[in-house]
Write a structure and sequence with these properties.
Largest sheet: 5 strands, antiparallel
Strand order of the largest sheet: 1-2-3-4-5
Radius of gyration: 42 Å
Oligomer: single chain
Helix content: 40-55%
Mean pLDDT: 86
Number of strands: 7
Order of helices and strands: HHHEHEEEEHHEEH
Length: 335
């Protein structure tokens, strides 16, 4: 596993044995995609993760995010693509900054990457992304999942004031920040997606478990991607086989048509030869010497044309050129 950088440790490694951070779920059922020795090391590492109450050195993305929200001049703000979209109340910001720094450092220590993307800007040409468009991703290689922290909101029925009674629109509910945070893995296929502050446990107390389930979610995305790629390859192979078979059928049909054509030509050549033989038998009946000589010349010409037409010969005619030979076709067919 790569080392986490920076002298200020935002995660703490404990030497005590791994404890199951999620009652009801077997620890042995998680991280099965890792080799056994590495799996136990990661589990022990995550079991020892703690989120400090204060932090002097934050993750670089958190540093830029804090600077963006703190700066009053645009010239002193970091690039938008370095800013995390924070949607909690001001009272919870520092807590979110510390939590993000902790989990980012832990995930990078385990070889994962943290990136900020603006999918909306990728869908629209010349769209300049805003901080509100930014989404936070944890990735490994080609695969990633989206994560975020939001603050739980309390909804209460709105009691209209005397001043509001004269207005056209009166809200049905009031919404109040509760100070309770909610960590989310925004992946449809993730086995577990949500961790919330409760009366007895905060998301900080579940940071090790969250890291493990983020890793699990990315592995799920990887398996889905590999499955899609395997299906794509299978479809391409099936399409290739279909095209090859279609080409074979087309070639077979052409060969059959040529066979029929040669058979017809051969039959014609045989008919011509039989006819010429019959004509030759009549030569003795012709008394005119000149007429007989012309007929002999014609018989020779007819036999040559029969040989040229016959696909079993390779007769070349001075006028018609080389005739179609079945031997040429057989050579191509064998290739």
């Amino acid at each position: 596993m790569p080392k986490s950088d920076g002298p200020d440790k935002t995660v703490v490694f404990a030497n005590d044995t791994y404890r199951d951070l999620s009652p009801g779920l077997k620890a042995s059922d998680r991280l099965l995609f890792l080799p056994e020795e590495e799996r136990e090391t990661v589990k022990e590492y995550c079991a020892g993760l703690t989120v400090p109450s204060e932090l002097s050195k934050f993750h670089s993305l958190v540093v830029d995010t804090k600077q963006y929200y703190r700066a009053r001049k645009e010239s002193t703000k970091p690039p938008v693509d370095r800013v995390i979209n924070i949607t909690v109340s001001d009272e919870q910001r520092e807590r979110v900054y510390i939590f993000y720094s902790t989990i980012f450092t832990a995930l990078e220590h385990l070889g994962y990457s943290i990136t900020i993307k603006a999918p909306r800007s990728e869908r629209y040409y010349n769209y300049q992304p805003l901080v509100k468009d930014n989404k936070l991703y944890v990735g490994l290689g080609e695969d990633d999942v989206k994560i975020r922290i939001k603050e739980q909101i309390k909804q209460t029925k709105h009691v209209p004031t005397d001043e509001e009674r004269n207005k056209y629109f009166i809200p049905a509910y009031d919404y109040e920040n509760t100070g309770k945070l909610h960590f989310i893995i925004e992946s449809y296929h993730a086995a577990r997606k949500n961790w919330r502050d409760t009366e007895t446990k905060r998301i900080e107390d579940q940071v090790g478990e969250i890291v493990i389930w983020v890793m699990e979610a990315i592995e799920v995305e990887k398996n889905l991607r590999l499955g899609r790629e395997a299906e794509r390859i299978m479809r391409e192979q099936e399409e290739l086989l279909r095209l090859e078979m279609a080409e074979k059928r087309e070639n077979e049909q052409k060969s059959l048509e040529l066979l029929e054509k040669y058979a017809v030509q051969w039959d014609k050549a045989q008919q011509i030869r039989r006819f010429v033989e019959s004509v030759e038998l009549r030569l003795c009946e012709i008394e005119d010497q000149e007429q007989r000589e012309k007929l002999v010349e014609w018989i020779q010409w007819a036999r040559e044309k029969a040989d040229w037409l016959d696909p079993l010969t390779e007769k070349e005619d001075d006028i018609l050129g080389k005739g179609k030979s079945v031997l040429d076709v057989v050579g191509d067919w064998e290739d």
